[in-house]
Design a protein that fits this description.
The protein has helices spanning 9-22, 25-37, 39-55, 61-88, 92-112, 116-130, 133-145, 150-179, 183-199, 209-212, 225-230, 234-248, 251-262, 267-294, 299-319, 323-351, 358-387, 389-410, 416-419, 423-429. It is mostly helical and 430 residues long. α5 (92-112) packs antiparallel against α6 (116-130), α8 packs antiparallel against α16 (323-351) and α15 (299-319) runs antiparallel to α18 (389-410). The longest helix has 30 residues, at 150-179.
């Protein structure tokens, strides 16, 4: 028998086909809109928060880094219980809608009281709510379409997510030009209300909850939490994810601070342009990655491309200060983050097939992301205050290089069809 990554394929494939047949097109379109509307809940506020706190509230870089870091830490602490709850409970729609609403209304408090004593506790609440978004969307998607169609569904989710960020940035440019930066946070509340309404369009009966958690068979118990961490390659993959986000998380917020210092008045527009070009690239990248996966390409070579562009981006940010230059450099984030959003999810799902812990594992991936992001914002803020912005960007690039080397050396190919091939074919793909 082949390894655990494929020993339950017949049972899950059959379940996946059933889930796909039960979920009508209108339900899958609702999932598209949910990914679109939740984009600004998951990804869109952080960079603007840095610009707002620097340009409008006049915070110091280290305090801005602290505000971003406590959000990451709160998310990290909530991710394990969030993943376990998504695996265990059948109210996935309620979890997603509730988390989105908390994030939407919580952002209003930031703009109403932009002082550390108020912002830091709110960031904790927002971070904890955000922990449910990633595992919740993945569990919902898997329960609706099944494992066979999960790669295409994840690529589609990411495409709509990036399209949502792109449209959100365009709206922000128009609204903030007329009404100011504070309206970024009012818009976030509107997105939250709309996302909750879309969740209601997905019938509970359309979700196969056994498939959604990746069980071996209906009613079978999940593996222990310790066994989850001992799955071959999973621990090294989590470490590589942590290092990737150690290098990545602070780059755009630092670039926003550079813009606020060197080009005051145009910083919000330039930040929106950064997000627009990156998200536009991510939409295309998600489509290409989905097609590449359907064509039989392995996860590892695609993921290596995403890891490789990050250190290049950091070095370029260290020497570019013009708004146009920063916007062009940010296009590289469209490649790296676009690949990461699809392939990291699939690698974790591959490693956990048959475990009953797929959403818990996705929570661990998000936990690694949060730990890396918190360390990135805290560390970069301190480095910038002591050594300057150029040193901060170069330090982030160094962390990204370590992530690339570690993943290349220590994480194997995980795509089940490739893992099951003879060793000679496996070496060809790996």
């Amino acid at each position: 028998m082949t390894p655990a990554t494929s020993d339950i394929t017949p049972t899950l494939d059959a379940a996946g086909a059933t889930a796909e047949a039960v979920a009508p097109p209108r339900v899958r379109r609702a999932l598209d809109w949910l990914a679109f509307l939740m984009a600004d809940m998951r990804d869109g506020i952080g960079p603007y928060l840095a610009v707002y706190l620097k340009g409008a509230a006049h915070w110091q870089p280290s305090m801005i880094g602290t505000a971003l870091a406590v959000n990451n830490i709160a998310t990290a602490l909530a991710l394990i219980p969030a993943g376990l709850l998504v695996d265990a409970l059948r109210c996935k729609r309620l979890l997603l809608a509730g988390a989105g609403l908390i994030i939407g209304f919580g952002t209003l408090l930031v703009v109403l009281a932009p002082r550390p004593a108020a912002v830091l506790p709110v960031q904790v609440i927002l971070g904890a709510a955000a922990a449910f978004l990633g595992p919740g969307m993945i569990g919902l998607s898997l329960g609706l379409v099944g494992p066979q169609r999960l790669p295409a569904r994840i690529a589609r989710n990411e495409g709509f997510n990036h399209a949502g960020n792109l449209c959100g940035a365009l709206v922000i440019i128009a609204v903030t030009h007329v009404a100011g930066l504070a309206w970024i946070f009012y818009l976030a509340c509107g997105y939250a209300l709309a996302s909750a309404a879309v969740v209601a369009l997905i019938p509970r009966a359309a979700i196969d909850h056994d498939v959604a958690r990746g069980r071996r068979e209906h009613g079978a118990p999940a593996i222990s939490l310790g066994e989850t961490l001992r799955r071959p390659g999973f621990a090294m993959f989590l470490l590589a994810v942590t290092l990737f986000h150690l290098g990545n998380a602070a780059m755009l917020p630092l670039a926003g601070q550079v813009l606020a210092i060197t080009h005051p008045g145009s910083d919000a527009a330039a930040m929106s342009a950064c997000i627009i070009v990156a998200q536009a690239v991510m939409v295309g990248v998600a489509f290409v990655v989905g097609r590449a996966s359907a064509a039989g390409f392995g996860r590892k070579p695609i993921f290596l491309v995403g890891l490789a562009v990050l250190p290049v981006r950091g070095v370029l940010f260290a020497f570019v200060t013009s708004p146009l230059g920063i916007v062009f450099v940010q296009m590289l984030d469209g490649i790296g983050a676009g690949i990461f959003g699809v392939i990291a999810t699939l690698i974790a799902a591959d490693l956990m097939r048959g475990s009953g812990r797929i959403n818990f594992a996705q929570g661990l991936v998000a936990l690694a992301t949060g730990i890396g992001g918190a360390a990135s914002n805290l560390g970069a803020g301190v480095i910038v205050e002591v050594f300057g912005y150029r040193a901060g960007f170069l330090a982030l690039s160094a962390a990204a290089l370590v992530a690339l080397a570690l993943f290349s050396a220590a994480v194997p190919e995980t795509r089940p069809e490739i893992v099951a091939r003879p060793a000679k074919m496996r070496r060809e793909w790996g």
